[in-house]
Design goal:
Blueprint: H1 4-23, E1 27-30, H2 37-44, E2 50-52, E3 59-62, H3 77-87, E4 90-93, H4 95-104, H5 106-111, E5 114-119, E6 123-126, E7 137-140, H6 141-144, E8 146-151, E9 154-160, E10 163-171, E11 174-179, H7 183-190, H8 193-206, H9 213-232, H10 236-255, H11 260-263, H12 267-279, H13 284-291, H14 295-307, E12 311-316, E13 319-324, H15 328-336, H16 340-351, H17 356-363, H18 367-379, E14 383-385, E15 391-393, H19 415-422
Parallel strand pairs: 1-2, 1-3, 3-4, 4-11
Antiparallel strand pairs: 5-8, 6-7, 9-10, 10-11, 12-13, 14-15
Helix pairs in contact: 1-9, 3-4, 7-8, 13-14, 17-18
């Protein structure tokens, strides 16, 4: 009879054989200030990326390392990014990150054969191509800047009217990928979903490490040996393992078949449901931060609530919005007006119809920013464009009076009520 130790040794060998193709590649998003977080949150909803202040991982995304926010040991971060690329990693940098590199060590780019030319050319249409798939968006280079790169051993992955938008540079053993625009600042002002898709497409493009054929073959052989041994051995440990495997499908399927009557017996799930019912809507990120739970747990609770027909989910751009049954229109409105610029535009239009130029002047933002937000609100039925070119607010289907009171939560539930409830007080109630 084969000893139990032999069985477990076989498992260890098989795991180490199979593990490299699965866990060898990690993506890290490097942030230097709070302005980087909105884009990170949007990206993390779409792809597996870790937030960090250190340039770790195989693929490093450092789109907006702002020199003004660096202090102490952080001052070397921009230069360290170049070093990580030379060591063999892929590092994606943006316009502000390159400026930070120049401030810390202006000669490091010169030694690498990289020349930068900062310029502006007005509105640039950023469009997808055969390599990068995303929703087209207009980028205001006059407001957010543009850098053109010249370098040895480089190739252009994406351009716009002859202007380089994404340039890949071979650097040492790795790659430095230069994004010539400032997607972080642009997204912070506009929440344009095309920017998120653009960055996600870049991450996806460089997240295909091409698993070694030898590793795949070795993994397949290891799995075959382990499966054969587990299926035929009389070892009591292996027999118990077989019984566990047989019960696994029942366990997994059972998690997705929670009876509706038991859905709200879980205190966390009941709390999430009451929170969304009171607020009118929520998102995965909101639930995670409000309840202090992991993304995996939040996804599970939200999925159970939607399967039980207690909540509905609606896609708004790249974000899934969860809301009470039959409250889709109200939830979309609340979610869209969470953006401060969009909310202010809406408040002004409610007072009287206005055009893009007037709104741009009143708000002190670019016309492209105003136009993007108006287009988004028009798409979801908050405003309409008249024949004379001005925009007016659309009254809700229910005929309720339009108002701009988006600072308070829906259904008359105040923010303080929910906070008190989350701390263990009474459930939220209408004022």
């Amino acid at each position: 009879m084969v000893r139990a130790s032999h069985f477990f040794a076989l498992i260890v060998v098989a795991l180490f054989t199979l593990l490299p193709p699965v866990v060898a590649f990690t993506v890290v998003y490097v942030a230097s200030d709070p302005g980087d977080i909105p884009l990170y949150n949007a990206i993390s909803n779409r792809t597996g990326v870790l937030l960090s202040k250190e340039p770790s991982g195989n693929l490093i995304v450092a789109l907006d390392v702002n020199y003004a926010f660096l202090n102490g040991s952080d001052k070397d971060l921009p230069v360290n990014l170049i070093g990580e690329a030379k060591k063999g990693k892929t590092v994606i940098v943006g316009l502000n990150t390159l400026r930070a590199v120049e401030k810390v060590n202006p000669r490091i780019l010169e030694f690498a054969g990289i020349q930068l030319n900062y310029t502006t050319v007005g509105i640039l249409p950023i469009e997808p191509n055969g390599l990068l798939k995303f929703e087209k968006f207009g980028y205001d280079s006059d407001r957010y800047g543009l850098v053109i790169v010249r370098a040895r051993n480089s190739k252009v992955l994406l351009d716009s009217g002859g202007m380089q938008i994404v340039t890949e540079i071979s650097l040492g053993k790795g790659k430095l990928v230069v994004v010539g625009i400032n997607p972080t600042a642009y997204y912070l002002d506009t929440s344009n979903p095309g920017v998120v898709e653009f960055v996600v497409s870049l991450i996806d493009h460089y997240s295909r490490p091409g698993s070694s054929r030898a590793l795949l073959v070795g993994g397949a052989l290891g799995a075959a040996v382990l499966a054969g041994y587990a299926a035929t051995s009389n070892n009591p440990h292996v027999q118990r393992f077989r019984e566990l495997i047989k019960s696994f499908p029942v366990i997994v399927i059972g998690r997705f078949l929670t009876p509706p009557a038991e859905v709200l017996q879980n205190s966390t799930r009941r709390g999430i449901y009451e929170y969304i019912k009171a607020k009118g809507y929520s998102t995965l990120i909101d639930v995670v931060s409000t309840f202090g739970i992991s993304r995996t747990n939040a996804k599970w609770h939200l999925r159970v609530l939607t399967r039980a027909k207690l909540l509905e989910e609606t896609n708004v751009g790249n974000t899934i919005v969860f809301h009470p049954i039959g409250k889709k229109e109200e939830a979309i409105k609340l979610f869209l007006l969470e953006n401060k610029t969009r909310k202010r535009i809406y408040e002004l239009i409610i007072e009287r119809p206005m055009g893009v130029s007037e709104l741009s002047r009143l708000l002190g933002v670019s016309k492209s920013t105003v136009h993007h937000n108006l287009t988004t609100m028009e798409e979801y039925g908050l405003v309409r464009k008249r024949e004379d070119g001005v925009y007016e607010a659309i009254k809700s289907v229910s005929g309720e009076k339009e108002h701009s009171g988006t600072d308070s939560l829906s259904h008359g539930v105040s923010g303080s009520n929910i906070v008190d409830w989350l701390r263990g007080g009474e459930a939220p109630h209408e004022d």
